[in-house]
Amino acid sequence: MTERTLSIIKPDATRRNLTGRINAMLEEAGLRIVAQKRTRLTVDEARAFYAVHRERPFFDSLVTFMTSGPVVVQVLEGRDAVARNRDIMGATNPEQAADGTIRKVFAESLEANSVHGSDSPDNAAIEIAFFFSARDITG
Ligand code: CMP
Fold first, then answer.
1. Ramachandran class of 105: left when φ > 0, alpha when ψ lies in -120 to 50, beta otherwise
2. Is residue 31 within 8 Å of 74, Cβ to Cβ?
3. Atom of ligand 1 nearest to the CA of 119
4. 3-class secondary structure for the chain?
5. Which of 60, 62, 76, 64 is CA-nearest to residue 2?
6. What are the pocket residues of ligand 1 if the criterion is a CB atom closer than 6 Å to any ligand atom?
7. Which of 119, 102, 135 is nearest to 23 (CA)?
8. pLDDT digit string (tens) for the chain, length 139 residues
């Protein structure tokens, strides 16, 4: 089923100028970038986006990291886009990520793991609406 998911290219990756190489991996995996913007999250935005993790011990550090530089937020579209993007991203912990995945190739650490992707179609809809209006997305 054609689906959309939210992707974030994180500050560790924008700092190393990897946006184009990550986008190429997404496109080669069959995903289409139907909306994209480069922005810098405020602390309030990062706290709200990751609110589900607010009780976790890594929350404050995650917010500091996600606001440490620019991010590229994007909507990806394609067949089974949520699962497909998670496949090409690889495991959250780059030490456990499969060969050839974005995190295996580029991630610096469990926190600075280069990309975020929605974990379900329901969360994808919520996360896309966090950053984009329908007018911003051109399929
Ligand atoms: P992401 O997929 O964006 O979702 C939550 C983020 O928290 C995760 O990627 C990592 O960047 C960060 N993080 C830091 N420590 C952990 C941890 N122990 N477990 C999961 N995520 C972590």
1. alpha
2. no
3. 2
4. CEEEEEEEECHHHHHCCCHHHHHHHHHHCCCEEEEEEEECCCHHHHHHHCHHHCCCCCHHHHHHHHCCCCEEEEEEEEECHHHHHHHHHCCCCHHHCCCCCHHHHHCCCCCCCCEEECCCHHHHHHHHHHHCCHHHCCC
5. 76
6. 53, 58, 62, 92, 110-111, 113, 116
7. 102
8. 899 999 999 999 999 999 999 999 999 999 999 999 999 999 999 999 999 999 999 999 999 999 999 999 999 999 999 999 999 999 999 999 999 999 999 999 999 999 999 999 999 999 999 999 999 999 9
State the Rg of the chain over Cα: 14
Q: Given ligand 1 and candidates 58, 61, 114, which is best to mutate, with the most ligand atoms within 8 Å of its CB? A: 58
Task: Please give the pLDDT value at position 122.
Answer: 98
Residue 44: the pLDDT is 98
Structure tokens of 125? 């809809």
Residue nearest to atom 8 of ligand 1 (CA): 111
Of 70, 79, 90, the C-alpha closest to 9 is 70
